[in-house]
Write a structure and sequence with these properties.
Helices cover about 35% and strands about 25% of the residues. By secondary structure, the protein is of the alpha/beta class. It has a 7-stranded mixed sheet with strand order 3-2-1-4-5-7-6, sandwiched between helices. Keywords: Methyltransferase, Transferase, Ubiquinone.
């Protein structure tokens, strides 16, 4: 894909999806696949922390963090997503259009980052992790969700097998863990979100990689070394 075309195509596709995304966002965060993300986040990032929500979409998750006592800046590539998110803006909760590979923050400005199923939508996830590391304070933390093998959205990368250009870098959860380590992050914890029919008691005895292989997404907490 030619230089700049990934960015342009990703922005165009997410602009087109913005209203459809908003229509299901509240359900995902309150009762669906994303309902456990904020409780997981709260367990590792103190209230009052300055947090960037990278790939914030329509801002619903950013709003939930802010309502629980965090200062939050949401970043999304899509102008239309940011326009939708700005309905939630208030003191301590703001939104900006931006590219995750070039974050609009100074070195060591942030306490934490949340990146929910957004790293896969970047052209160079390793570069984005390096950029996240740059803007985090020492021992800053990252809550990242990586789509698992059973996730329907992974179909967005299927056409690469026919040589077509795609704007999604699918990765296995264990690949993300290795990528994070390669970019100077320490593993802290993970949780697994499954499709209907699988619950944690069924897989409790499985090793982590086998659990990950059944997931809709794996939720990681990592720390800047």
């Amino acid at each position: 894909m030619a230089n700049g075309s990934w960015h342009t195509e990703a922005k165009s596709q997410w602009d087109a999806r913005a209203e459809g995304w908003q229509s299901k966002s509240a359900e995902m965060w309150e009762r669906g696949s994303r309902k456990g993300i904020c409780p997981f986040f709260f367990g590792y990032v103190p209230q009052g922390s300055r947090v960037a929500d990278l790939g914030c979409g329509d801002g619903y998750g950013s709003r939930k963090l802010h309502q629980s006592g965090y200062e939050v800046i949401g970043i999304d590539l899509s102008n239309k997503m940011v326009q939708l998110a700005r309905r939630f803006e208030t003191e301590g909760l703001t939104f900006r259009q931006g590219d995750l590979s070039s974050l609009p923050f100074a070195d060591e400005e942030l306490d934490a980052v949340m990146a929910i199923n957004s790293l896969e939508w970047t052209e160079n996830p390793s570069q984005v992790l390096a950029e996240i590391r740059r803007v985090l304070k020492p021992s800053g933390r990252v809550c990242a969700a990586i789509l698992g093998p059973t996730a329907g959205p992974r179909e967005n990368s299927y056409k690469r097998l026919s040589g077509e250009a795609v704007i999604m870098n699918t990765m296995m959860p264990w690949e993300f863990a290795r990528l994070a380590a390669d970019n100077g992050f320490l593993y802290m914890a993970e949780e697994h979100v499954y499709k209907g029919g699988i619950t944690e008691p069924y897989v409790q005895a499985f090793p982590a990689e086998l659990k990950q292989s059944l997931t809709f997404f794996t939720l990681f907490m990592i720390e800047k070394a």
